[in-house]
Design goal:
two-stranded parallel sheet; two-stranded antiparallel ribbon; Alpha/beta knot; alpha+beta; elongated; 19% strand
């Protein structure tokens, strides 16, 4: 089974190399590919978020890195929906 994970913190997923998940990867039963979303940005600071339109607290994700990422290599994808169903 192949699992592609897109994140801005790829180092958080390094524990996937140990425990039962690590054993499954070593046997070839699970193939995990971790992708850094910052690799698909175009500014020199690799920015993936921005302030909300109209102001207010917090940050929101930019759409550009996701669009670039999805058009390059996703053939089929399962995405989580807010309702809990893909």
């Amino acid at each position: 089974m192949r699992l592609d994970v897109v994140t801005i913190f790829p180092e958080y997923l390094e524990p996937l190399n140990v425990s039962l998940v690590g054993k499954a990867r070593a046997r070839g039963q699970l193939n995990v590919h971790v992708h850094d979303l910052r690799d698909w940005t175009y500014d020199r600071h690799n920015t993936v978020d921005d302030t909300p339109y109209g102001g207010g607290p917090g940050m929101v994700m930019k759409t550009e890195p996701w669009g670039t990422r999805s058009t390059r290599s996703w053939r089929t994808a399962t995405r989580a929906a807010p309702a809990g169903r893909p």
